[in-house]
Amino acid sequence: xxxxxxxxxxxxxxxxxxxxxxxxxxxxxxxxxxxxxxxxxxxxxxxxxxxxxxxxxxxxxxxxxxxxxxxxxxxxxxxxxxxxxxxxxxxxxxxxxxxxxxxxxxxxxxxxxxxxxxxxxxxxxxxxxxxxxxxxxxxxxxxxxxxxxxxxxxxxxxxxxxxxxxxxxxxxxxxxxxxxxxxxxxxxxxxxxxxxxxxxxxxxxxxxxxxx
Length: 212
Known about the structure:
By secondary structure, the protein is mainly β. The protein has helices at 2-19, 85-89, and strands at residues 25-41, 44-47, 51-65, 68-83, 96-112, 120-139, 142-145, 156-168, 174-183, 198-211. Strand 6 and strand 7 (142-145) form a beta hairpin.
């Protein structure tokens, strides 16, 4: 995990160096994400219930070649999932949810097809580092804060996001975009007796953007 984070920060620093020499386009993007977590153990995968969350990011788009750009992003995203805790944790049946407020920093490669057209399609992909600033568990209407250390949970993770969008309007300033994101690292810390079980985040986002 530390190696992944170091490599990301090194690439991010290189991107910042490029932005000092190339005029950047600033923008904002916000929308809704369908978030869930998937547990994997011994080749068996189980996805928990989806949770609809808000997200918002500011971004810079930095041209590095014909149709090619580096897009640097930073912002907020909600994450979470819902489960029936009786069958998983034991005890009486009921419902449970786990939700996180996450600060995110991303570095994505973007390719625009025919960017001078009144409306054009673009594609993007790249890593995103997330850091949970808090977490809340809710069981049978009772809420409690998540203790990341005591519950052996990682606050920081690295995800991969891929997406496509349609830019239109004057100068392509307005955009509608869809993304798929999935964790490369696990929410739970590796334990000697967990038999390789990992809990990873996955999200589908639909957002609206505007460039200034």
